[in-house]
Amino acid sequence: MYHIKNDKRCHKSAAHIGEALKALLEEKPLAEISVTDLQKASGVSRSTFYRLFDNVDDVLVYIIEEDFRDMIAMYKDMDWSDFTQHLIDSISAEGRGIMNVALSGKTHLVSRALRYIMTMEASMANFKFDNKSRYMIAMFIGGCISLVTAWDENGRKESIEELAGMMQQAFNYDQIESMLRRSADR
User: Can you tell me the distance from the alpha carbon of 61 to that of 168, in angstroms, rounded to the nearest whole number?
Assistant: First the structure.
């Protein structure tokens, strides 16, 4: 878990560490990145690193949450098929390192961060989640991540639009909308 206080210096140091992780993910697998690597690449002291993060995985969760917070907030008024297409595009985009993470066996961290951000954004829009709503979001995000991982393994032959269409076939978007609206109306 990360421990970033609402302090300008803490946020600046965390951002430096996050940028260092993104750069390192372009060079090598997540499993090969150490705290020392992050400390050297970011220019922060070891004590600053441990004041903000417990380990490299925490930095990963932090950068995923930061990257996707803005994306999800921007697209909260979209319909599910457009949102799905954008989410798949964001997960698969070069430079985010998400595919590196997925291939390193840390997909659960991506999923956890995305679930957290989607739930937080929805609650700020006055949605009140019940367990069914949370499970639906978890299945949807897991489906997107799994689909993108399989797509990458198969050589990325299909378009993002085709992948979004596959997700739409797999999930009943009307039911998702209905469930989320029902949760909001409570």
Answer: 27
